[in-house]
Design brief:
Number of helices: 17
Largest sheet: none
Number of strands: 0
Distance between the termini: 43 Å
Strand content: under 5%
Radius of gyration: 21 Å
Shape: globular
Length: 377
């Protein structure tokens, strides 16, 4: 049994590794092309911002915030920094104790190793849950090569967040409630949306409460509470240290970032009207992507087990219920059942190849724009 277990993980790694390698070759190649284009074109507008992004490299955008938090702590930064939860910079500081590893290198290593782990775990989950080997391989490739997947190469939390979420689902499938609790708490310490993993945990807990014994019922309760405890621990610390426990959430809801919570139908309609009027600012250009997300959510609900659909509906409702849909593609990538849904509707070999080529091409475009254009990853 032990040999089979090891063989299974080798199979998962073999499925996830090729896409992971290809994604890094493409992302680094496009980054080099962007740097060359910047030097050749020397744009007159936005030159400083674009030059700074290229100088920051894999630690641009949010990666710069995590670098500064890891080096200086929250107190030395503006209040905007509080919206970045502490697990990622804490892990980087711990890894930086290893001789020869700086905080910057630690952030990039954690992000990229976590992305590989996410692919490995997703392949394992798809095989065990859906029993389709080809779908599982396709899911690992899609995770690595969706248009937003370039952030899995940068110093971002997406790779670690996906790995923790998939790991939680694997723990649930094995009725390992202690593992689900630990992973759920870590996910909520990583980013505020990590608390949404409590939705599928509660879904499975209800089933246990109906059918399980007393001991299993007892174990499932801490697993449901753990994500709230993880996020609550950080918010409590912020309250003690800075006087307002809810400031990380209020900062995120300011007009400079995602904006306040609104009816997603209203936001969607405004985006459609902007497209119709040929005004492509705001959320207009993300309307087609929002439609794709909604369609894939329906696929999740219809084809995947109930806990996957519940997690997806909750996550998509949160990502669409804000005034600004900036980074919508990245948030959708973090909702891994959407990747499984996409894999389930691309089972034709011809369609599979076309989708992978289009996705990889989109990733290259997004990478280029993230450094030289208006895209905000």
């Amino acid at each position: 049994m032990k040999r089979g277990w090891r063989s299974g993980w080798r199979r998962d790694l073999a499925a996830a590794l090729p896409g992971w390698v290809v994604a890094r070759i493409l992302t680094l190649g496009v980054f080099g092309a962007a740097a060359g284009a910047f030097e050749r074109l020397r744009p007159s507008t936005g030159r400083y911002a674009r030059g700074l992004r290229l100088q920051q490299g894999l630690l641009t955008w949010d990666g710069d915030w995590y670098t500064r938090i890891a080096h200086e702590g929250y107190a030395a930064l503006p209040a905007d920094g509080l919206r970045y939860f502490p697990l990622y910079p804490l892990l980087s500081r711990g890894l930086a104790w290893v001789p020869g590893i700086s905080i910057e290198l630690a952030l990039v290593l954690i992000a990229n190793v976590s992305a590989l782990a996410a692919g490995v775990l997703l392949h394992r989950l798809a095989r065990e849950e859906l029993g389709d080997d080809r779908l599982a391989v396709r899911a690992a490739w899609l995770l690595a090569l969706t248009p937003a997947s370039f952030v899995l190469v940068l110093g971002y939390t997406e790779g670690l967040a996906i790995a923790l979420a998939v790991g939680t689902f694997l723990a649930l499938r094995a009725s390992h409630w202690g593992g689900a609790a630990a992973l759920g708490a870590l996910g909520a310490l990583l980013r505020p949306t990590g608390v949404l993993i409590a939705v599928p945990v509660a879904w499975e807990a209800v089933k246990v409460w109906r059918e399980g014994g007393f001991r299993e019922r007892l174990w499932c309760l801490p697993a449901v509470a753990a994500p709230f405890a993880g996020a609550g621990a950080y918010l409590l610390w912020v309250g003690v240290r800075f006087g307002d426990a809810l400031e990380p959430l209020s900062v995120q809801q300011s007009s400079r970032f995602r904006g306040s919570i609104v009816n997603p139908l209203v936001v969607f309609w405004r985006g459609v009207k902007d497209l119709w009027s040929s005004y492509y600012g705001g959320n207009a250009l993300r309307v087609p992507f929002a439609v794709a997300v909604i369609v894939l959510t329906i696929v999740c609900v219809r084809r995947l087990p109930g806990s996957y659909g519940a997690y997806t509906v909750a996550s998509v409702a949160v990502m669409l219920s804000t005034e600004r849909w900036s980074s919508l593609e990245r948030y959708a990538l973090g909702t891994f059942p959407l990747v499984l849904a996409l894999a389930s509707v691309t089972d034709s070999p011809r369609v599979e190849r076309a989708v992978l080529v289009l996705s990889a091409s989109g990733m290259c475009v997004y990478t280029f724009l993230s450094f030289l254009g208006p895209a905000f990853p």
